[in-house]
Input
Amino acid sequence: MADKARKNVFIQGAIPPEKIAHSIAQHQQKTQIGAHSIFLGQIRADQIEGKTVTGIEYSAYEEMANNVFHEIRESAFEKFELTCAHIYHSLGLVKSGELCLFVFTSSPHRKAAIEACSFLVEEIKAKVPIFGKELFEDSSHQWKVNR
Output
């Protein structure tokens, strides 16, 4: 696949369910697609040292992060037979129960769509410079550590 323009993957606040529905609906005319795979990252109300997480406030070096997202997306197209791949990540406050990551892959066949989606999520978690500050019910906070 030819090198495409770098897209801004960031959305301010939580990813609304309507965005997901709209993304799916836009692919109905692409009749060469036989499968989609979707990953939705949701904020958990974890218990940490007796305190409940009420949300995560995300920040990033946006230009750098968008470059890394682009590289990861392009590598997925090199590894898998994809028709398209979309990535959206939240910035700012996302409350517990809300969505912060939306990865959507499409392919002629299910195996490629599923494997590419999983690949993208793992690469994003490992490589993209996004920082999350966990907010607690008592108004305290701490930087999130990926578990």
